[in-house]
Amino acid sequence: MLFSTTEEQAIDAASKIKLLLLDVDGILSDGRLYFSNSGEEIKAFHSLDGHGIKMLMSTGVAVGIITGRTSALVSKRAADLGVGILYQGREDKIDVLQEVSKDQDIPLNAICYAGDDLPDLPVLRAVGLSFSVPGAHYAVKNAVHVVTARHGGEGAVREITDFILAAQGNLQPFLGPPT
Q: Is 44 domain-assigned?
């Protein structure tokens, strides 16, 4: 992980997170858009990310998805993971952030967001903790608190969930007793 703040500041911010919001293309997936000859969309999601999301939610931290595109695949993935906060086809992500903050009664400084492109910038700047990935737009990487070591769709979300879990003292139970 690459920190634009100190690691201690990022850990402190992560210890207060009550909601993790995620972009899809470039964060939950590798950002490539695959279409079959019939026009069917195909996306790949990493199982490490899915398990990390489930672990985080089991500790009481909510998880949601905000994406500018609309996809039945994303609806299915969210349902499979138990993610109930899902906004698709919304390019006005800062407006969605305000809605979610109000609806969930969670202040912006207790929200973490992960995004990789310019439409994500207003949200990344507004939340208490922000993440991106190595393949993100340079302006995004310069704006976030932390850039993951893994790329989107390759376990980057798991890095984020493990970081939050560790900061909140909730990772060790998932790792089992120390050897």
A: yes
